[in-house]
Amino acid sequence: MKEKILQLTQMVEISNHGHILYMYDSLDGYLENAVSYILTGFKQGNQLLLIDNDEHYNLLVHRLKEILQSDDISFLHYVNNAEFYQLHGDFHCDSIIRHFNRLLAPFFEEGIPIRTWAHVEWREQNVDHLKLEHYEYVSDQNIEKSGIISVCAYDGQYVTASLQNKLQRSHEYLMTDTELVKSTLYKMGGMIYPSLSVQEIDNKTANKLKATKHQLQSFITNNLDPVIIYDHSDRVISVNLAFEKTFGWSRESILGLNATELPILPEDRKFEFYRNRSFTLRGEKIVEYETVRNTKDGHLIHVLVSCFPLLNVENYNDGWAVIIKDITEKKQAQELLIRSEQLSIAGELAAGIAHEIRNPITSIKGFFQLLQSDTLKNNTYYDIILSEIERIETILSELLLLAKPQEMNLVSINLCMLLNDVIVLMDAQANMNSVLMITEFETEELFIKCEENQIKQVCINFIKNAIEAMADGGKLVIRLEKKGNEKVLISFIDDGCGIPSNVLDKLGQPFYTTKEKGTGLGFMVSKKIIENHKGTVTIESEENKGTKIELTLPL
Asked: Is the pTM of the predicted complex or chain greater than 0.70?
Protein backbone atom coordinates (compact mmCIF):
# COMPACT_ATOMS: atom_id res chain seq x y z
CA MET A 1 0.00 0.00 0.00
CA LYS A 2 2.86 2.34 0.75
CA GLU A 3 4.10 2.02 -2.82
CA LYS A 4 0.68 2.96 -4.16
CA ILE A 5 0.58 6.02 -1.94
CA LEU A 6 4.03 7.02 -3.19
CA GLN A 7 2.82 6.45 -6.74
CA LEU A 8 -0.14 8.70 -5.92
CA THR A 9 2.24 11.39 -4.68
CA GLN A 10 4.00 11.41 -8.03
CA MET A 11 0.64 11.70 -9.83
CA VAL A 12 -0.35 14.55 -7.56
CA GLU A 13 2.77 16.48 -8.47
CA ILE A 14 1.55 16.42 -12.08
CA SER A 15 -2.05 17.48 -11.36
CA ASN A 16 -1.08 19.87 -8.56
CA HIS A 17 -3.67 18.42 -6.20
CA GLY A 18 -5.11 15.10 -5.15
CA HIS A 19 -8.68 14.50 -4.00
CA ILE A 20 -9.04 10.83 -3.03
CA LEU A 21 -12.30 8.98 -2.43
CA TYR A 22 -11.59 6.07 -0.05
CA MET A 23 -14.29 3.38 0.31
CA TYR A 24 -13.14 1.02 3.06
CA ASP A 25 -14.60 -2.36 4.05
CA SER A 26 -12.69 -3.28 7.21
CA LEU A 27 -11.38 -1.30 10.18
CA ASP A 28 -7.96 -2.98 9.97
CA GLY A 29 -7.64 -2.03 6.30
CA TYR A 30 -8.72 1.52 7.14
CA LEU A 31 -6.14 1.88 9.92
CA GLU A 32 -3.33 0.35 7.82
CA ASN A 33 -3.97 2.71 4.91
CA ALA A 34 -4.34 5.74 7.19
CA VAL A 35 -1.02 4.98 8.93
CA SER A 36 0.72 4.46 5.56
CA TYR A 37 -0.70 7.75 4.23
CA ILE A 38 0.35 9.65 7.37
CA LEU A 39 3.88 8.22 7.43
CA THR A 40 4.41 8.87 3.71
CA GLY A 41 3.53 12.51 4.27
CA PHE A 42 5.71 12.66 7.39
CA LYS A 43 8.74 11.41 5.42
CA GLN A 44 8.13 14.15 2.86
CA GLY A 45 7.99 16.80 5.62
CA ASN A 46 4.20 17.17 5.63
CA GLN A 47 2.04 17.92 8.63
CA LEU A 48 -1.29 16.06 8.72
CA LEU A 49 -4.78 17.28 9.60
CA LEU A 50 -6.80 14.26 10.77
CA ILE A 51 -10.60 14.66 10.89
CA ASP A 52 -11.90 11.47 12.49
CA ASN A 53 -13.61 10.03 15.57
CA ASP A 54 -11.94 9.53 18.95
CA GLU A 55 -11.79 5.73 18.64
CA HIS A 56 -9.94 5.81 15.31
CA TYR A 57 -7.63 8.58 16.53
CA ASN A 58 -6.54 6.63 19.61
CA LEU A 59 -5.87 3.48 17.54
CA LEU A 60 -3.87 5.45 14.95
CA VAL A 61 -1.79 7.22 17.61
CA HIS A 62 -0.96 3.87 19.21
CA ARG A 63 0.20 2.38 15.88
CA LEU A 64 2.19 5.49 14.89
CA LYS A 65 4.08 5.54 18.19
CA GLU A 66 4.94 1.85 17.80
CA ILE A 67 6.25 2.34 14.25
CA LEU A 68 8.11 5.59 14.95
CA GLN A 69 9.28 4.36 18.35
CA SER A 70 8.62 7.86 19.62
CA ASP A 71 5.90 9.65 21.55
CA ASP A 72 6.42 12.78 19.46
CA ILE A 73 3.58 12.93 16.95
CA SER A 74 3.25 16.71 16.99
CA PHE A 75 2.96 16.62 13.19
CA LEU A 76 -0.52 15.09 13.60
CA HIS A 77 -3.35 17.61 14.21
CA TYR A 78 -6.66 16.05 15.26
CA VAL A 79 -10.23 17.41 14.88
CA ASN A 80 -13.30 15.43 15.95
CA ASN A 81 -15.34 14.66 12.82
CA ALA A 82 -18.75 14.90 14.54
CA GLU A 83 -18.00 18.50 15.52
CA PHE A 84 -16.49 19.25 12.12
CA TYR A 85 -19.33 17.96 9.93
CA GLN A 86 -22.34 18.47 12.19
CA LEU A 87 -21.77 21.78 13.94
CA HIS A 88 -24.54 23.51 11.95
CA GLY A 89 -26.44 20.40 10.84
CA ASP A 90 -25.39 17.63 8.47
CA PHE A 91 -23.23 18.88 5.58
CA HIS A 92 -23.82 22.57 6.01
CA CYS A 93 -21.46 23.10 3.08
CA ASP A 94 -20.44 26.74 3.57
CA SER A 95 -19.74 26.31 7.30
CA ILE A 96 -17.66 23.15 6.77
CA ILE A 97 -15.52 24.70 4.01
CA ARG A 98 -15.00 27.88 6.07
CA HIS A 99 -13.97 25.79 9.07
CA PHE A 100 -11.65 23.66 6.91
CA ASN A 101 -9.91 26.74 5.47
CA ARG A 102 -9.53 28.28 8.94
CA LEU A 103 -7.77 25.11 10.12
CA LEU A 104 -5.36 25.17 7.16
CA ALA A 105 -4.69 28.93 7.15
CA PRO A 106 -1.89 28.96 9.82
CA PHE A 107 0.08 26.30 7.85
CA PHE A 108 -0.27 28.17 4.56
CA GLU A 109 0.80 31.44 6.20
CA GLU A 110 3.97 29.81 7.59
CA GLY A 111 4.65 27.92 4.34
CA ILE A 112 4.32 24.53 6.05
CA PRO A 113 3.23 21.67 3.71
CA ILE A 114 0.17 19.78 4.91
CA ARG A 115 -2.11 16.97 3.74
CA THR A 116 -5.51 15.95 5.17
CA TRP A 117 -7.39 12.75 5.98
CA ALA A 118 -11.11 13.02 6.76
CA HIS A 119 -13.48 10.25 7.84
CA VAL A 120 -16.87 11.47 6.60
CA GLU A 121 -19.88 10.66 8.80
CA TRP A 122 -23.45 11.89 8.96
CA ARG A 123 -26.25 11.57 11.49
CA GLU A 124 -29.29 11.59 9.21
CA GLN A 125 -30.19 8.02 8.26
CA ASN A 126 -31.59 9.14 4.93
CA VAL A 127 -29.13 11.92 4.18
CA ASP A 128 -29.92 14.02 1.13
CA HIS A 129 -27.53 12.58 -1.49
CA LEU A 130 -27.74 15.72 -3.61
CA LYS A 131 -26.54 17.74 -0.63
CA LEU A 132 -23.67 15.30 -0.10
CA GLU A 133 -22.70 15.42 -3.80
CA HIS A 134 -22.73 19.22 -3.73
CA TYR A 135 -20.56 19.27 -0.62
CA GLU A 136 -17.95 17.00 -2.22
CA TYR A 137 -18.01 19.04 -5.44
CA VAL A 138 -17.30 22.27 -3.54
CA SER A 139 -14.63 20.45 -1.50
CA ASP A 140 -12.91 19.33 -4.71
CA GLN A 141 -12.78 22.92 -5.99
CA ASN A 142 -11.41 24.08 -2.65
CA ILE A 143 -8.74 21.35 -2.54
CA GLU A 144 -7.64 22.17 -6.09
CA LYS A 145 -7.18 25.82 -5.13
CA SER A 146 -5.25 24.82 -2.00
CA GLY A 147 -2.92 22.47 -3.92
CA ILE A 148 -2.98 19.76 -1.25
CA ILE A 149 -3.57 16.01 -1.08
CA SER A 150 -6.79 15.15 0.71
CA VAL A 151 -8.46 11.80 1.47
CA CYS A 152 -12.22 11.58 2.06
CA ALA A 153 -12.92 8.20 3.66
CA TYR A 154 -16.37 6.57 3.73
CA ASP A 155 -17.50 3.34 5.38
CA GLY A 156 -18.43 1.29 2.30
CA GLN A 157 -21.31 -0.54 4.00
CA TYR A 158 -23.27 2.72 4.25
CA VAL A 159 -22.66 3.92 0.68
CA THR A 160 -24.71 2.52 -2.20
CA ALA A 161 -23.11 1.73 -5.55
CA SER A 162 -25.12 4.54 -7.12
CA LEU A 163 -23.90 7.09 -4.58
CA GLN A 164 -20.32 5.84 -4.91
CA ASN A 165 -20.42 6.44 -8.67
CA LYS A 166 -21.75 9.96 -8.11
CA LEU A 167 -19.04 10.72 -5.56
CA GLN A 168 -16.34 9.58 -7.99
CA ARG A 169 -17.30 12.52 -10.22
CA SER A 170 -15.82 14.92 -7.65
CA HIS A 171 -12.73 12.82 -6.71
CA GLU A 172 -9.69 12.43 -8.95
CA TYR A 173 -8.76 9.10 -7.34
CA LEU A 174 -10.64 6.09 -5.97
CA MET A 175 -9.11 3.96 -3.22
CA THR A 176 -10.25 0.72 -1.57
CA ASP A 177 -8.56 -1.32 1.16
CA THR A 178 -6.33 -2.93 -1.48
CA GLU A 179 -6.28 -0.67 -4.55
CA LEU A 180 -5.67 2.90 -5.62
CA VAL A 181 -6.74 3.99 -9.13
CA LYS A 182 -7.60 7.12 -11.03
CA SER A 183 -11.34 7.77 -11.10
CA THR A 184 -12.72 7.16 -14.59
CA LEU A 185 -15.83 9.17 -13.68
CA TYR A 186 -13.97 12.27 -12.54
CA LYS A 187 -15.36 15.27 -14.47
CA MET A 188 -13.81 18.42 -13.17
CA GLY A 189 -16.11 21.32 -14.02
CA GLY A 190 -18.51 19.09 -15.94
CA MET A 191 -20.74 17.63 -13.20
CA ILE A 192 -24.42 17.61 -14.02
CA TYR A 193 -27.11 18.13 -11.39
CA PRO A 194 -30.68 16.87 -12.01
CA SER A 195 -31.82 19.94 -13.95
CA LEU A 196 -29.00 22.46 -14.36
CA SER A 197 -25.27 22.38 -14.80
CA VAL A 198 -23.14 23.43 -11.84
CA GLN A 199 -22.08 26.47 -13.82
CA GLU A 200 -25.70 27.57 -14.21
CA ILE A 201 -26.45 26.86 -10.57
CA ASP A 202 -23.36 28.77 -9.45
CA ASN A 203 -24.25 31.73 -11.66
CA LYS A 204 -27.83 31.86 -10.43
CA THR A 205 -26.75 31.44 -6.83
CA ALA A 206 -24.13 34.16 -7.22
CA ASN A 207 -26.70 36.53 -8.73
CA LYS A 208 -29.18 35.77 -5.96
CA LEU A 209 -26.53 36.31 -3.32
CA LYS A 210 -25.47 39.58 -4.95
CA ALA A 211 -29.08 40.84 -5.07
CA THR A 212 -29.76 39.73 -1.50
CA LYS A 213 -26.56 41.34 -0.25
CA HIS A 214 -27.47 44.58 -2.03
CA GLN A 215 -30.98 44.54 -0.54
CA LEU A 216 -29.64 43.86 2.94
CA GLN A 217 -27.05 46.63 2.65
CA SER A 218 -29.71 49.05 1.39
CA PHE A 219 -31.98 48.09 4.30
CA ILE A 220 -29.18 48.68 6.80
CA THR A 221 -27.92 51.95 5.29
CA ASN A 222 -31.29 53.63 4.77
CA ASN A 223 -32.97 52.49 7.97
CA LEU A 224 -33.82 55.43 10.23
CA ASP A 225 -33.35 53.21 13.29
CA PRO A 226 -29.97 51.87 14.45
CA VAL A 227 -29.17 48.45 12.94
CA ILE A 228 -26.46 46.01 14.05
CA ILE A 229 -25.49 42.93 12.02
CA TYR A 230 -23.62 40.05 13.71
CA ASP A 231 -21.92 37.11 12.01
CA HIS A 232 -22.31 33.49 13.16
CA SER A 233 -19.59 34.11 15.80
CA ASP A 234 -21.53 37.08 17.28
CA ARG A 235 -19.00 39.61 15.94
CA VAL A 236 -20.30 42.96 14.69
CA ILE A 237 -19.86 43.09 10.91
CA SER A 238 -22.02 46.13 10.14
CA VAL A 239 -23.75 49.12 11.74
CA ASN A 240 -25.51 51.99 10.02
CA LEU A 241 -25.32 55.79 10.26
CA ALA A 242 -28.38 55.88 12.53
CA PHE A 243 -26.42 53.78 15.04
CA GLU A 244 -23.57 56.31 15.07
CA LYS A 245 -25.96 59.28 15.45
CA THR A 246 -28.03 57.67 18.20
CA PHE A 247 -25.28 56.21 20.38
CA GLY A 248 -22.25 58.37 19.51
CA TRP A 249 -19.71 55.62 18.77
CA SER A 250 -18.13 55.51 15.33
CA ARG A 251 -18.56 52.56 13.00
CA GLU A 252 -14.82 51.84 13.10
CA SER A 253 -14.79 51.53 16.90
CA ILE A 254 -17.66 49.02 16.88
CA LEU A 255 -16.84 46.67 13.98
CA GLY A 256 -15.28 43.39 15.09
CA LEU A 257 -16.49 43.61 18.69
CA ASN A 258 -18.26 40.64 20.22
CA ALA A 259 -21.91 41.29 21.11
CA THR A 260 -21.09 41.11 24.84
CA GLU A 261 -18.38 43.79 24.39
CA LEU A 262 -20.69 46.40 22.87
CA PRO A 263 -20.52 49.57 25.00
CA ILE A 264 -24.21 50.31 24.37
CA LEU A 265 -25.21 47.28 26.49
CA PRO A 266 -25.48 48.16 30.21
CA GLU A 267 -23.79 45.69 32.55
CA ASP A 268 -27.07 44.69 34.18
CA ARG A 269 -28.64 43.96 30.76
CA LYS A 270 -25.99 41.45 29.57
CA PHE A 271 -28.52 38.66 30.03
CA GLU A 272 -30.49 40.11 27.11
CA PHE A 273 -27.73 39.09 24.68
CA TYR A 274 -27.81 35.44 25.77
CA ARG A 275 -31.61 35.36 25.67
CA ASN A 276 -31.80 37.05 22.25
CA ARG A 277 -29.07 34.82 20.82
CA SER A 278 -30.85 31.66 21.97
CA PHE A 279 -34.00 32.79 20.13
CA THR A 280 -32.20 33.57 16.87
CA LEU A 281 -30.24 30.30 16.98
CA ARG A 282 -33.60 28.50 17.05
CA GLY A 283 -34.66 30.51 14.00
CA GLU A 284 -37.09 32.64 16.03
CA LYS A 285 -37.45 36.41 16.10
CA ILE A 286 -38.06 38.89 18.92
CA VAL A 287 -40.33 41.85 18.23
CA GLU A 288 -39.94 45.18 20.06
CA TYR A 289 -39.34 44.57 23.75
CA GLU A 290 -38.67 47.67 25.85
CA THR A 291 -35.31 48.15 27.57
CA VAL A 292 -32.49 50.71 27.94
CA ARG A 293 -29.11 51.27 26.25
CA ASN A 294 -26.01 53.40 26.94
CA THR A 295 -24.89 56.34 24.83
CA LYS A 296 -21.29 57.53 24.53
CA ASP A 297 -22.04 60.69 26.55
CA GLY A 298 -23.12 58.57 29.53
CA HIS A 299 -26.90 58.72 29.21
CA LEU A 300 -29.39 55.86 29.35
CA ILE A 301 -32.00 55.97 26.60
CA HIS A 302 -35.25 54.03 26.37
CA VAL A 303 -35.41 51.75 23.33
CA LEU A 304 -37.43 49.01 21.65
CA VAL A 305 -35.26 46.09 20.51
CA SER A 306 -36.10 43.60 17.75
CA CYS A 307 -33.91 40.65 16.68
CA PHE A 308 -34.10 38.15 13.85
CA PRO A 309 -31.83 35.46 12.36
CA LEU A 310 -30.03 35.85 9.02
CA LEU A 311 -30.19 32.72 6.88
CA ASN A 312 -27.90 31.80 4.00
CA VAL A 313 -28.93 30.24 0.67
CA GLU A 314 -29.00 26.80 2.29
CA ASN A 315 -31.41 28.14 4.92
CA TYR A 316 -28.88 27.80 7.74
CA ASN A 317 -28.37 30.41 10.43
CA ASP A 318 -25.39 32.52 9.36
CA GLY A 319 -25.70 35.46 11.75
CA TRP A 320 -28.37 37.75 13.16
CA ALA A 321 -29.59 41.33 13.07
CA VAL A 322 -30.74 43.76 15.75
CA ILE A 323 -32.91 46.83 15.16
CA ILE A 324 -33.08 49.41 17.94
CA LYS A 325 -35.79 52.07 18.04
CA ASP A 326 -35.09 55.08 20.25
CA ILE A 327 -38.30 55.85 22.18
CA THR A 328 -36.81 58.30 24.68
CA GLU A 329 -38.80 61.25 23.32
CA LYS A 330 -41.95 59.13 23.19
CA LYS A 331 -41.43 58.11 26.84
CA GLN A 332 -40.91 61.73 27.83
CA ALA A 333 -44.10 62.68 25.99
CA GLN A 334 -45.97 59.90 27.80
CA GLU A 335 -44.67 61.12 31.14
CA LEU A 336 -45.77 64.66 30.28
CA LEU A 337 -49.18 63.33 29.30
CA ILE A 338 -49.47 61.43 32.58
CA ARG A 339 -48.54 64.57 34.50
CA SER A 340 -51.07 66.51 32.44
CA GLU A 341 -53.75 63.93 33.22
CA GLN A 342 -52.86 64.10 36.90
CA LEU A 343 -53.20 67.88 36.80
CA SER A 344 -56.50 67.49 34.97
CA ILE A 345 -57.74 65.07 37.62
CA ALA A 346 -56.55 67.45 40.33
CA GLY A 347 -58.46 70.29 38.67
CA GLU A 348 -61.54 68.10 38.32
CA LEU A 349 -61.31 67.18 41.97
CA ALA A 350 -60.71 70.70 43.22
CA ALA A 351 -64.38 71.77 43.19
CA GLY A 352 -65.46 68.54 44.86
CA ILE A 353 -62.72 68.81 47.45
CA ALA A 354 -63.74 72.35 48.31
CA HIS A 355 -67.38 71.29 48.67
CA GLU A 356 -66.71 68.05 50.56
CA ILE A 357 -64.26 69.56 53.04
CA ARG A 358 -66.13 72.84 53.47
CA ASN A 359 -69.23 71.06 54.82
CA PRO A 360 -67.52 69.24 57.72
CA ILE A 361 -65.38 72.31 58.44
CA THR A 362 -68.58 74.41 58.69
CA SER A 363 -70.04 71.82 61.08
CA ILE A 364 -66.89 71.79 63.22
CA LYS A 365 -66.81 75.60 63.34
CA GLY A 366 -70.48 75.77 64.33
CA PHE A 367 -70.14 73.23 67.11
CA PHE A 368 -67.06 74.94 68.48
CA GLN A 369 -69.11 78.12 68.71
CA LEU A 370 -71.80 76.21 70.55
CA LEU A 371 -69.17 74.76 72.87
CA GLN A 372 -68.17 78.27 73.73
CA SER A 373 -71.73 78.99 74.87
CA ASP A 374 -71.74 75.68 76.77
CA THR A 375 -75.54 75.53 76.66
CA LEU A 376 -75.70 71.80 75.80
CA LYS A 377 -73.78 68.69 76.75
CA ASN A 378 -70.33 68.88 75.25
CA ASN A 379 -70.03 65.11 74.55
CA THR A 380 -72.58 65.21 71.71
CA TYR A 381 -70.64 67.99 70.02
CA TYR A 382 -67.34 66.14 70.45
CA ASP A 383 -68.77 63.03 68.76
CA ILE A 384 -70.02 65.03 65.78
CA ILE A 385 -66.72 66.95 65.48
CA LEU A 386 -64.71 63.68 65.63
CA SER A 387 -66.94 62.10 62.96
CA GLU A 388 -66.50 65.04 60.61
CA ILE A 389 -62.72 65.14 61.14
CA GLU A 390 -62.53 61.41 60.37
CA ARG A 391 -64.48 62.05 57.16
CA ILE A 392 -61.96 64.72 56.14
CA GLU A 393 -59.10 62.30 56.86
CA THR A 394 -60.74 59.60 54.71
CA ILE A 395 -61.24 62.00 51.81
CA LEU A 396 -57.67 63.28 51.99
CA SER A 397 -56.17 59.75 52.30
CA GLU A 398 -57.99 58.47 49.23
CA LEU A 399 -57.21 61.66 47.35
CA LEU A 400 -53.49 61.27 48.10
CA LEU A 401 -53.58 57.64 47.02
CA LEU A 402 -55.16 58.72 43.75
CA ALA A 403 -52.89 61.67 43.01
CA LYS A 404 -49.53 60.58 44.42
CA PRO A 405 -47.40 58.35 42.15
CA GLN A 406 -47.22 54.90 43.77
CA GLU A 407 -44.02 52.88 43.95
CA MET A 408 -44.66 49.63 42.10
CA ASN A 409 -42.81 46.75 43.75
CA LEU A 410 -43.91 43.93 41.46
CA VAL A 411 -43.43 40.41 42.82
CA SER A 412 -44.72 37.02 41.68
CA ILE A 413 -47.92 36.27 43.62
CA ASN A 414 -50.26 33.26 43.59
CA LEU A 415 -53.66 34.90 42.94
CA CYS A 416 -55.48 31.90 44.41
CA MET A 417 -53.77 32.41 47.77
CA LEU A 418 -54.25 36.18 47.62
CA LEU A 419 -58.01 35.85 47.01
CA ASN A 420 -58.33 33.21 49.75
CA ASP A 421 -56.60 35.60 52.19
CA VAL A 422 -59.05 38.38 51.27
CA ILE A 423 -62.03 36.01 51.61
CA VAL A 424 -60.91 35.00 55.12
CA LEU A 425 -60.59 38.70 55.99
CA MET A 426 -64.09 39.51 54.69
CA ASP A 427 -65.76 36.35 56.01
CA ALA A 428 -67.00 37.91 59.25
CA GLN A 429 -68.68 40.83 57.44
CA ALA A 430 -70.23 38.41 54.94
CA ASN A 431 -71.65 36.25 57.74
CA MET A 432 -73.08 39.30 59.52
CA ASN A 433 -74.92 40.20 56.30
CA SER A 434 -75.98 36.58 55.53
CA VAL A 435 -73.87 36.55 52.37
CA LEU A 436 -72.45 33.23 51.16
CA MET A 437 -69.09 33.60 49.37
CA ILE A 438 -68.40 30.89 46.77
CA THR A 439 -65.03 30.44 45.04
CA GLU A 440 -64.67 29.04 41.54
CA PHE A 441 -60.94 28.78 40.83
CA GLU A 442 -59.82 27.18 37.57
CA THR A 443 -56.58 26.07 39.23
CA GLU A 444 -54.92 26.09 42.64
CA GLU A 445 -51.92 28.05 41.39
CA LEU A 446 -52.05 31.06 39.09
CA PHE A 447 -49.09 33.43 39.37
CA ILE A 448 -48.91 37.05 38.23
CA LYS A 449 -46.49 39.88 38.93
CA CYS A 450 -48.20 42.58 40.97
CA GLU A 451 -48.09 44.92 43.94
CA GLU A 452 -49.70 42.52 46.44
CA ASN A 453 -51.20 45.03 48.88
CA GLN A 454 -52.73 47.14 46.10
CA ILE A 455 -54.42 44.14 44.45
CA LYS A 456 -55.67 43.04 47.89
CA GLN A 457 -57.10 46.53 48.42
CA VAL A 458 -58.97 46.34 45.10
CA CYS A 459 -60.42 42.90 45.90
CA ILE A 460 -61.48 44.04 49.38
CA ASN A 461 -63.19 47.11 47.88
CA PHE A 462 -65.23 45.08 45.37
CA ILE A 463 -66.13 42.30 47.83
CA LYS A 464 -67.16 44.91 50.42
CA ASN A 465 -69.33 46.70 47.84
CA ALA A 466 -70.96 43.41 46.84
CA ILE A 467 -71.75 42.49 50.46
CA GLU A 468 -73.24 45.93 51.11
CA ALA A 469 -75.37 45.58 47.95
CA MET A 470 -77.04 42.46 49.42
CA ALA A 471 -78.76 43.96 52.46
CA ASP A 472 -81.08 40.93 52.78
CA GLY A 473 -78.33 38.38 52.22
CA GLY A 474 -77.39 36.56 49.06
CA LYS A 475 -74.60 34.84 47.17
CA LEU A 476 -71.26 36.24 45.98
CA VAL A 477 -69.30 34.17 43.44
CA ILE A 478 -65.57 34.91 43.20
CA ARG A 479 -64.22 33.36 40.01
CA LEU A 480 -60.61 33.06 38.84
CA GLU A 481 -59.61 31.79 35.38
CA LYS A 482 -57.04 32.18 32.61
CA LYS A 483 -58.06 34.18 29.58
CA GLY A 484 -55.92 32.77 26.78
CA ASN A 485 -52.19 32.53 27.42
CA GLU A 486 -51.55 36.15 28.33
CA LYS A 487 -54.25 37.29 30.80
CA VAL A 488 -56.04 36.26 33.96
CA LEU A 489 -59.70 37.11 34.70
CA ILE A 490 -61.09 37.77 38.21
CA SER A 491 -64.88 38.04 38.45
CA PHE A 492 -67.04 39.21 41.39
CA ILE A 493 -70.67 38.19 40.73
CA ASP A 494 -73.38 39.07 43.26
CA ASP A 495 -77.17 38.72 43.22
CA GLY A 496 -77.76 41.98 45.05
CA CYS A 497 -79.88 45.00 44.22
CA GLY A 498 -77.90 45.89 41.09
CA ILE A 499 -76.94 49.36 39.88
CA PRO A 500 -79.38 51.59 37.94
CA SER A 501 -78.16 52.48 34.44
CA ASN A 502 -78.11 56.22 35.22
CA VAL A 503 -75.85 55.53 38.22
CA LEU A 504 -73.67 53.06 36.30
CA ASP A 505 -72.70 55.80 33.84
CA LYS A 506 -71.42 57.99 36.67
CA LEU A 507 -69.26 55.39 38.40
CA GLY A 508 -65.68 56.59 38.57
CA GLN A 509 -66.57 60.27 38.77
CA PRO A 510 -64.88 61.84 41.79
CA PHE A 511 -67.10 62.19 44.89
CA TYR A 512 -70.09 60.58 43.19
CA THR A 513 -71.48 57.97 45.60
CA THR A 514 -74.79 56.36 46.56
CA LYS A 515 -73.53 55.43 50.03
CA GLU A 516 -74.32 57.54 53.04
CA LYS A 517 -70.71 57.48 54.27
CA GLY A 518 -68.96 56.97 50.91
CA THR A 519 -66.43 59.36 49.40
CA GLY A 520 -66.93 58.47 45.74
CA LEU A 521 -63.20 57.83 45.40
CA GLY A 522 -63.08 54.06 46.11
CA PHE A 523 -63.96 52.88 42.61
CA MET A 524 -61.71 55.52 41.04
CA VAL A 525 -58.75 54.37 43.17
CA SER A 526 -59.40 50.68 42.42
CA LYS A 527 -59.62 51.35 38.69
CA LYS A 528 -56.36 53.32 38.75
CA ILE A 529 -54.57 50.48 40.58
CA ILE A 530 -55.69 47.92 37.98
CA GLU A 531 -54.74 50.21 35.09
CA ASN A 532 -51.29 50.76 36.65
CA HIS A 533 -50.93 46.97 36.48
CA LYS A 534 -51.79 47.17 32.73
CA GLY A 535 -55.20 45.63 33.41
CA THR A 536 -58.85 46.59 32.85
CA VAL A 537 -62.05 46.89 34.91
CA THR A 538 -65.51 46.26 33.44
CA ILE A 539 -68.94 46.33 35.14
CA GLU A 540 -72.20 44.72 34.10
CA SER A 541 -75.27 45.29 36.26
CA GLU A 542 -79.02 44.94 36.15
CA GLU A 543 -81.38 46.34 38.76
CA ASN A 544 -82.81 43.76 41.17
CA LYS A 545 -80.72 40.99 39.57
CA GLY A 546 -77.14 41.71 40.54
CA THR A 547 -73.76 42.98 39.40
CA LYS A 548 -70.72 41.42 37.77
CA ILE A 549 -67.32 43.13 38.01
CA GLU A 550 -64.48 41.71 35.90
CA LEU A 551 -60.79 42.49 36.36
CA THR A 552 -58.24 41.42 33.74
CA LEU A 553 -54.53 41.39 34.58
CA PRO A 554 -51.53 40.28 32.50
CA LEU A 555 -49.86 36.97 33.37
From this structure: no
